[in-house]
Design brief:
The protein is of the alpha+beta class and 258 residues long. It has nine helices and twelve strands. The strands form five sheets. A three-stranded antiparallel β-sheet has the order 6-5-10. The protein starts with 15 loop residues before the first helix and ends with a helix.
């Protein structure tokens, strides 16, 4: 769990990264983030009489309306930050300032590499473990607040972690089917002999490797097997029809599409 993998009863590790491949998760994050990215963010100036007008001269107007940075539009920035919030419950961006203190750009930071705690003065402290950098970057409060734009969703709780047990079932089904098709759409089994023939470890390894090389994978499904003398194939495990996993997969796809 310290490395980002949350344990589950099913035994499948759940992280925000590997859950993005679940169709329902991907679809929900895509719809929410893209919808919010389309909404314009404008800063307004108050006028006498209670009226207002867009304050295009404000330093933040162009950042949240046009370009968040030289490498990212405001729309892309909002989409990425919203997607991070949906998955991790938090999204962060580093605030780049000019010499005069005005905001020049905002740069998204991956929430999976960020940890937040408090220093001795009970002030927020941000620690970012940047890939390729030996020492983490630490932003303390010091004289002024850390240069971090921090958004929270669900109180900063990751929805993926909250729903990890339910998601682990879907992930386990996905991995099961991947392994099933990788084995030629057939359940696992054993090669057994009725004769009391003792095989050496070398012979066992050789037979296992030959069997996997010739019959593993969808492309090798339903090929004719030629077994060594005295050996018979015995299927082990429950076929997907018996466990009604095919119906469960269809239901999962149907829910993701809706």
């Amino acid at each position: 769990e310290a490395l980002g993998a949350t344990p589950t009863v099913s035994g499948v590790s759940i992280t925000e990264a590997n859950c993005e491949g679940i169709p329902a998760i991907y679809a929900c994050v895509k719809v929410i983030s893209e919808t919010l990215a389309q909404t314009p963010i404008k800063l307004y100036r108050k006028l006498p009489g209670g009226n207002k007008e867009p304050d295009t001269d404000h330093e933040l107007y162009s950042i949240f309306h046009d370009l968040a940075s030289p490498e990212q539009t405001a729309s892309e920035f909002k989409e990425q930050m919203t997607g991070f919030c949906c998955l991790y419950g938090n999204s962060y961006a580093e605030i780049e300032r000019r010499p005069n203190g005005s905001v020049k750009a905002v740069w998204p930071l991956h929430p999976g590499l960020m940890s937040v705690d408090r220093n001795n003065l009970n002030q927020l402290r941000y620690t970012y473990r940047k890939p390729g950098r030996a020492e983490p970057i630490v932003w303390n409060w010091d004289v002024q607040r850390p240069p971090i734009f921090h958004l929270r969703y669900n109180g900063g709780r990751s929805p993926i972690r909250v729903l990890r047990e339910h998601l682990s079932t879907s992930k386990a089904l996905e991995l099961y089917y991947a392994a099933l098709f990788g084995n030629g759409s057939a359940p696992g089994g054993v090669l057994q002999s009725k004769d009391p023939v003792k095989l050496t470890e070398t012979q066992i390894t050789s037979i296992r490797n030959q069997w996997q090389d010739l019959h593993r994978g969808v492309a090798n499904a339903h090929k004719i097997a030629v077994l060594p003398a005295g050996l018979q194939w015995q299927a082990a495990g429950v076929p997907p029809e018996g466990a009604q996993l095919a119906d469960l997969l269809d239901l999962r796809i149907e829910r993701a599409a809706s």
